[in-house]
Design brief:
By secondary structure, the protein is an alpha+beta fold. The chain is about 55% helix and about 10% strand. The chain has 2 domains: about 10-420, Ammonium transporter fold, CATH 1.10.3430; about 470-580, Alpha-Beta Plaits. A hairpin with a 5-residue loop joins strand 3 and strand 4 (about 200).
Length: about 575
Amino acid sequence: MNITEMITQEVFGIWFLIGAALVFFMQAGFAMLEAGFCRAKNAGNILMKNLMDFCIGTVCFIFLGFGLMMSEDMLFGFVGIPNLNIFTDFTGFMENNASSFVFNLVFCATAATIVSGAMAERTKFSSYCIYSAVLSLIVYPIEAGWTWNPNGWLANLGFIDFAGSACIHTVGGVAALIGAIMVGPRIGKYIRNEKGKVIKVNAIQGHNIPIGALGCFILWFGWYGFNGAAATSGSQLAAIFLTTTIAPAVATVVCMLFTWIKNGKPDVSMCINASLAGLVCVTAGCHCIDAAGAIIEGIVSGFLVVYVVEFLDLKLHIDDPVGACGVHLANGIAGTLLAGLLATNTSSLGIDGPVYALIHGTDFMSGLKVFGVQCLGISSIIVWTSVLMIITFFIIKKVHGLRVSREEEIEGLDSTEHGLPAAYAGFSMRPQAIVEAMDVTVPVVSGDIPVAEAVEVKSVPSFETPDGHAYTKIEIICKESRLDALKKALMGVDITGMTVSHVLGCGVQKGRQEYYRGVPVEASLLPKIQVDIVVSKVPVQTVIDTAKKVLYTGHIGDGKIFVYNVMNVIKIRTGEEGFAALQDVK
């Protein structure tokens, strides 16, 4: 080996570990994405699960997982024989396996964390830890060894999965789907009639889309290490970066246009999912497809993620809060199969590959062989993961319990599972719970209550103010965009104080129809501003006329004004009461 080859090998060895660090940073992306797409009362629980995915996975991977996956001794190319060299021969392990261990460990954590979002907001934390251990200990290491261990049976067949569309994302997606089905939907997600048929699907919106978008950007950034870390040359690395950029960009544009046409407005959260879907789809063949192939994969994933997310929610009534199944399962499968159709370089498989191995190839049988191996590989991985995950979740559900109690779910997992009062102390959040209609008890008044049991109705007595002055509270509900103009106008008529609040409410129109992830949102509560004023010296009609003049546009939603009598006013600082308490300090 000459000096140039030695330097090149050293550089790519360093890049390999940098790529592993980027993949580890993706844990932060998953944490932000899932937390933003769920309600604030469960944000701390989601962060804890993403932290423990990696930490539990590390322990499991040290003792058993890495040996099952990358051992040089494999039984029939199916499972490695662990040797525990990390404990018995640490020096030799460092020389031969340290980089591989770190790299495959962070990939294992990625597969485990995909499930967190699909089972969010109703799963016991302890049960989730058990699942995470099983996936990191047995499920992921064995199937990943089939593909990435040189002695694995899928590797020997030439299965294309360069960075994990099948080994990571499909595995995580299958586990997410099974987990979401077995844990059941969140309270209030689906409203059922007396026969158990779903008659309404509620949109439970995430509490912080900016955090979700930040998670998407972190994941996209980390994906360059995810796909590119195993590159063996500068040109291959550049090609991987190119396809890893094109596919998600095209997917996001397609999703934006599709949801815009479909729902009347481009869907922000679905476009975030589409970016990730494009990344998942291109992962398997990022090293062996060209720009045209990346565009095709982007188009497919842009449509596929919307269809699958909405199909699972609206048709199958499977509650997946973050769209993990649509992103990882559907596009993991699609990306694996498309790699067999769109590969431009199959020389590593022992085939003189024509452009687009199957679709436009001159050697149809060779192309068919490539695609057949892809079908066999993805099917085997799905069956393996499905069997083990069904058994795992079934045992957890029967022995330990998979779901928190109804009361704990309504209160939020932050407080009930972790003793965390709020993940955002000091911030006011939107209503956090939806309950089924059957939980709302409406008293029935029949008029048949006996007189002896009836409550006597008394008239409310009138009252006089202490100093003979009248005090009036004026409550103004208006659009937030008109607040500044209203404040200035009220100050112009000598109003000495006001209280301003952000509120939710509706008028007779019940808001406007909106969609969240393809599901109609109950838009009966819209954000408004409430301004409260108490006056005595300033005429009430002056305040009303001023507010009407500033707020009137003639369109629905201008607001309302309510007027109340006030019994007394007390200024805490001075102890002044009544009229004096309302006057400005001179």
